[in-house]
Each structure stands twice: as structure tokens, then as C-alpha cells.
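TL;DR need C-alpha cells for one chain.
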Amino acid sequence: MNNAVNEIHHCTSPTSSEVLTALYIGHLLRSKGAFRVLELANEFRGENVVFKIAGEFGDESEKMDFLEEIERLELNNIELLGRVDGEKKATLFHMSDVLLLPSYSEAQPLTILEAFSCGLPVLATPVGGIVDILDEKTGRCVPFEDFGEALECILLKGRHYFSKDCKKKYKSSFTNKLFKDNCKEILR
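>> reply
TL;DR here they are.
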């Protein structure tokens, strides 16, 4: 049975911009792939792509390692946003071009479902339940070593290319109503 999330509503539509936004929302841990986002930002140095990173660090040691890596790589295409929720999270989903999820392990991440509800394509590693919900119509599911090429492909096609299919997948599989109906069916 699939997870479910509330649809994220927002009053503005995505705006076109010369600078593209790759978004990471989650715990800022090595196991969640947060450090991989830094590798990707380094690969896209000099491109018109900003990497917005939202979330909380697991501990002070992980935070220091992360900040030192940004400094070591001399990354200037990173924005650290801290923990986000509510309207700020909705704004990020609606104003970004792709959600990044380069995890080493996952179940069925709610962040992907939230992204789909906003029409935001997802680039993720093929771990856990991700392989069951992500396809070429909603983004890409590839090993991390192929993230650079896949990110370039998604950004070239543009968010609008994926948006309708992302929303369709959300509405057909991941709404709270569907989740409740499935629970009732199981309990019969």
C-alpha cells in the first residue's frame, strides 16, 4: 500500500528564470545523500543552476563536515535554507525545477509525493520504494554516478514537460482519500 500526503497548494505559479533551481529537502545526513548534492553542485559549477538545500543536520559534527566541504569545494551555487515547512516549503516546491533525492536507502519518501502534488519532477537514486513510484514521465531514477547527465536532461526538458504527469501520478495513487479507501478495503 502506498503512502499518502496532502496536496501542497500555493497561490503562485512557477516563474521562468534564467537561473534553474535544484532542490534538496530532507535531513542533512550522509546516509540521505546530502553530501552528494555538494558533489553535484561542484559538477554544475559555472552553470545557471542553484542548489537550494533545506533541512536539519543530524548533529554538530555532520554540520561542520558539510560546511567544510562547501568551503573546500569553494561552492557559490549553494543556498542553505535550514528547516522549512508550511508556506515556505510550498513556495520552494513551486519555484524549483527539480527535486533531488540521492539517498543511499529509503522506503517510500513523502518528499517525492509532495513534489508530485506540485508537478515537480524528481531525480532520485534507485533505492527502496523509489523504484516503484518514479519513472521517465515524472523524472529520473538513476544511480548517483549518472545524476549529472540525468539532471541536465531534466533541466533541458524543463519542469513543464513533467508537471502534468507528476500531478496525475499523485492524484491517481497518493492522495489521502485513496489511502483511507485502501485502508478500509484491507480491513473488510
